[in-house]
């Protein structure tokens, strides 16, 4: 019998053999629903007739019922699906035969799950089975109305349970909208209201949380004449008393899962796998750090072995799996630095950008701290040498490090790493690899041809994989013909030097390359011009000068022949040997002008997209004086800030390489503009060293162009990076250089920006009069060109400098002038900064009520902006004003809210706030 499921959680229908089958007729649907709801129990004929005809059966009801049963049996797949058993019938659908049974099983499993994330996943799967109101197409059947209400109540219970699990995960901020709507739909549901109250309280909205309780209490009293129950009364009391039980759970450290997918068709290597298993089994997790170094020639299968074994032992490392391709033998010398690799690992381990130290040694120390005591599997693929690997080693012996390299990494081995020297597979294993990929039946028909293919590939796994892919895509061609083609190209091309002199790898590659269509072959050659570790379809399309929908099938053709690999959805890469091969083909096949045009198209694509994405991340940023020229056909664009961030994160490494490629190839205009377009993202993510690097490249490009404006913008990038790295003297020098360069072109807005940034640098260097002078000059320049936002920001900066100098009345005046400008512009970030400055001024003028109101306005704005750290610091300022005003309880409440946020962010400032709060608590009282 085909697999069958009756669906009740929506309209009543049947899925059998993967096909949806509607049930014709109200009475038949009702009969099926009653039988399905009985969950394999016998339902009497009398009860069936009563339910199906709603207590008013016709005289022919019994005969009609039997006819309906016969129809349903045919629909469900046979007589055995509905069994006649006195005194009636039962539905034999088997376990999971109804969507209700599946949902109940998932809900029960969620109750046994100890991990909140697991509970959420199970409950969401259960809730997803409801397609609308249950038994939706059985109108007017009162005998089934109670069942429909029961099924709706099961769903609502599951919704409450998933909300509770998400609260346990600390998702209170993201739940407020959902819970507000659920509470509106179910005005008497106390658990939903209690969850909404807790979510609001955890985001600092105590008054709103209490308001939810008052509305519920009023609804219950006016509509039902009852008071709220004890559970929600307890939540209300806890909120009034700031009970610590309401605080969100401590955030669990992230558990990264970065391993690539296991290798398709992995074959053989049993002795190596056994050796690695034995090494891990005998290594003491409480002793020295466990490291295994897998060395071997290019294309021998080091990465395949490492990834396959990593998947095999991953369950022994529950705290996460880290993976990085160090590009140690990249043909274009784009070797990944240890600093870049550590930063990627810190991101994966959940370290916020503003907490990442500037110094490499400090970053490595933080990385080791985050791994201390944790069981994490770390795969360092394609390492160049021991020096590249050593900074990436954790200090925890509970971790396992797997390193692959073409070199033997003798330095690591001397320090105790377990060596694995990977050699070519024996002929039998190589034959097995090929057979696995082309099919055992096909290989068995022509064993001699298979042997010849193995020999022609010199048993090199990479070459075997390419050959197998080509053979698999030509199933009607005999293997003898395939071997003959391979024989024809063998020896025609020079061997790839520097690796294995017994492997004519280029001959194997050329065989697959020659079988490509013209457009796919051209794209393969041009892919070598892309500077990054991988690329998406739009970048490939730009290289080839093709529409995306034309480039995608070409990439798929290359992937089918294993000349490229789609290692993540929509992103392609290829082995460095294949990159070398493609580079050689491009140099011999495509003219220098063609290659240069392809590079220009790629850079223009990146520049247009990056510029558009930057405008979404920082709309208030002044645009470039000469924006990038529009493309002949409009390319894809990000639609929102989140999409822009996602794109930058995916293209980050490729964009960095593209800046340097542009400069090296003489595309200086693209080089500096691309660096400018990346700046907002690099700053947001704390990549200030990278911002410095691209800033220097941009400055050199501007100098070659003889363009003062480009040079000034590059100097501003360098200054901003230096400021964030605490290098204030260097930042000041760059900004003074920018002032001079902007002045040559009478670019007053640029000069104003530089003065404003110089004011910040002066402030950080404790030169407050100097900071005030630069702020005033910025204000004059902004006003001279009618730059409204600049004028408002500069007014606040002047006010803040006055406040720092103790000139609080002048500070108040300037900030009050800034506010209406910022309100007109809708600049909430500027408004928040200005309210904070006003609060500081009023506080020191002794006007505490006004100071407190200003700080509260700032809190509201930064909360809407989603800037949790600034929200916490503003709460600290608010608390200080409340304490000075003589309201210690309000101050403690503000500091508690600041502490909650900082704890959630795992920010070191939490220690200071905790100490401040402890000092403010009366003896014997709870913090």
UniProtKB/TrEMBL annotation:
It comes from the Bacteria. Residues 1-93 bind DNA. CDD domains: BTAD. InterPro entries: AfsR-DnrI-RedD_regulator, BTAD, OmpR/PhoB-type_DNA-bd, P-loop_NTPase, Sig_transdc_resp-reg_C-effctor, TPR-like_helical_dom_sf, TPR_rpt, WH-like_DNA-bd_sf. Gene3D superfamilies: P-loop containing nucleotide triphosphate hydrolases, Tetratricopeptide repeat domain, Winged helix-like DNA-binding domain superfamily/Winged helix DNA-binding domain. Pfam families: BTAD, TPR_12, TPR_8, Trans_reg_C. The keyword Iron-sulfur does not apply. Residues 620-639 are annotated as: Disordered. Residues 1-93 form the OmpR/PhoB-type domain. Keywords: DNA-binding, TPR repeat, Transcription, Transcription regulation. TPR repeats lie at residues 832-865. PROSITE patterns: OMPR_PHOB (PS51755), TPR (PS50005), TPR_REGION (PS50293). Belongs to the AfsR/DnrI/RedD regulatory family. This is SARP family transcriptional regulator.
């Amino acid at each position: 019998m085909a697999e069958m499921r009756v669906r009740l959680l929506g309209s009543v229908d049947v899925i059998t053999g993967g096909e949806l089958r509607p049930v014709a007729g109200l009475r038949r649907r009702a009969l099926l629903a009653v039988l399905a709801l009985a969950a394999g129990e016998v339902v009497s004929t009398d009860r069936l007739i009563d339910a199906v005809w709603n207590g008013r059966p016709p005289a022919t009801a019994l005969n009609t019922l039997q006819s309906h049963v016969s129809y349903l049996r045919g629909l469900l797949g046979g007589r055995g699906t509905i069994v006649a058993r006195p005194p009636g019938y039962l539905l034999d659908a088997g376990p999971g035969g109804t969507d209700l049974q599946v949902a109940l099983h998932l809900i029960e499993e969620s109750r046994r799950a100890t991990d909140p994330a697991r509970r959420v996943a199970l409950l969401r799967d259960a809730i997803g089975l409801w397609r609308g109101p249950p038994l939706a197409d059985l109108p007017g059947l009162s005998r089934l109305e109670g069942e429909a209400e029961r099924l709706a109540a099961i769903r609502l219970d599951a919704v409450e349970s998933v909300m509770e699990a998400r609260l346990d995960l600390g998702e209170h901020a993201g739940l407020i909208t959902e819970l507000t709507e659920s509470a509106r739909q179910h005005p008497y549901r106390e658990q939903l209201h209690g969850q909404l109250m807790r979510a609001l309280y955890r985001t600092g909205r105590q008054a709103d949380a209490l308001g939810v309780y008052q509305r519920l209490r009023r609804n219950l009293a006016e509509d039902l004449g009852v008071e709220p129950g004890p559970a929600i009364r307890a939540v209300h009391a806890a909120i009034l008393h700031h009970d610590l039980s309401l605080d969100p759970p401590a955030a669990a450290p992230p558990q990264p899962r970065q391993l690539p997918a296991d290798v398709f068709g992995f074959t053989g290597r049993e002795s190596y796998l056994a050796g690695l298993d034995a090494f891990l089994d005998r290594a003491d997790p409480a002793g020295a750090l466990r490291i295994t170094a897998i060395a071997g020639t290019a294309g021998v299968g080091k990465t395949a072995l490492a990834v396959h074994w990593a998947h095999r032992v991953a369950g022994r490392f529950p705290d996460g799996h880290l993976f990085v391709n160090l590009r140690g033998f990249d043909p274009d010398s784009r070797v990944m630095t240890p600093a870049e690799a550590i930063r990627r690992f810190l991101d994966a381990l959940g370290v916020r950008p503003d907490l990442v130290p500037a110094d490499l040694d400090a970053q490595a120390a933080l990385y080791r701290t985050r791994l201390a005591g944790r069981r994490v599997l770390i795969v360092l693929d394609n390492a160049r040498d021991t020096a590249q690997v050593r900074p990436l080693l954790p200090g925890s012996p509970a971790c396992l490090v797997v390193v692959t390299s073409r070199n033997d990494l003798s330095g690591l081995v001397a320090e105790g790493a377990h060596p694995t020297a990977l050699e070519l597979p024996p002929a039998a294993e190589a034959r097995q690899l090929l057979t696995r990929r082309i099919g055992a039946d096909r290989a068995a028909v022509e064993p001699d041809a298979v042997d010849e293919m193995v020999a022609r590939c010199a048993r090199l796994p990479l070459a075997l994989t390419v050959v197998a892919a080509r053979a698999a895509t030509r199933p009607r061609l005999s293997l003898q013909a395939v071997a003959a083609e391979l024989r024809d190209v063998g020896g025609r091309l020079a061997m790839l030097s520097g690796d294995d002199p017994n492997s004519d790898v280029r001959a194997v590659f050329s065989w697959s390359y020659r079988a490509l269509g013209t457009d796919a072959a051209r794209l393969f050659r041009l892919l070598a011009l892309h500077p990054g570790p991988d690329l998406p379809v739009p970048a490939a399309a730009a290289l080839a000068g093709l529409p995306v929908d034309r480039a995608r099938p070409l990439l798929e053709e290359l992937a089918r022949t294993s000349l490229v690999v789609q290692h993540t959805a929509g992103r392609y890469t290829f082995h460095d040997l294949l990159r070398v091969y493609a580079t050689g083909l491009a140099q011999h096949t495509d003219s220098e002008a063609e290659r240069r045009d392809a590079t220009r198209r790629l850079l223009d694509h990146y520049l247009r997209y990056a510029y558009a994405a930057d405008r979404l991340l920082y709309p208030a940023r002044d645009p470039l004086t000469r924006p990038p020229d529009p493309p002949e056909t409009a390319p894809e664009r990000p639609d929102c800030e989140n999409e822009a961030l996602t794109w930058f994160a995916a293209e980050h490494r490729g964009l960095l390489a593209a800046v340097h490629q542009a400069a090296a190839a003489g595309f200086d205009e693209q080089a500096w503009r691309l660096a400018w377009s990346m700046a907002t993202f690099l700053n947001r993510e704390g990549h200030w060293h990278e911002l410095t690097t691209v800033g220097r490249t941009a400055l050199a490009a501007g100098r070659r162009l003889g363009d003062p404006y480009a040079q000034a913008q590059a100097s501003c990038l360098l200054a901003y990076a230096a400021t964030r790295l605490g290098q204030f003297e260097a930042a000041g020098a760059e900004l003074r250089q920018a002032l001079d360069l902007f002045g040559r072109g009478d670019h007053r807005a640029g000069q104003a920006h530089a003065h404003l940034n110089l004011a910040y640098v002066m402030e950080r260097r404790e030169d407050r009069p100097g900071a005030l002078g630069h702020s005033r000059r910025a204000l004059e320049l902004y006003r001279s060109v009618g730059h409204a936002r600049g004028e408002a920001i500069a007014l606040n900066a002047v006010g803040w400098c006055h406040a720092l100098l103790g000139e609080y009345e002048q500070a108040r005046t300037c900030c009050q002038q800034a506010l209406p400008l910022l309100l007109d512009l809708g600049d909430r970030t500027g408004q928040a900064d200005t309210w904070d400055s006003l609060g500081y001024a009023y506080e020191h003028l002794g006007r505490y009520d006004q100071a407190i109101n200003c700080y509260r306005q700032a809190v509201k704005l930064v909360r809407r902006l989603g800037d949790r750290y600034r929200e916490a610091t503003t709460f600290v300022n608010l608390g200080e004003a409340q304490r000075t005003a003589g309201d210690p309880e309000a101050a403690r409440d503000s500091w508690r809210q600041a502490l909650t946020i900082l704890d959630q962010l795992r920010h070191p400032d939490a220690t200071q706030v905790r100490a401040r709060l402890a000092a403010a608590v009366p003896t014997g009282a709870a913090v």
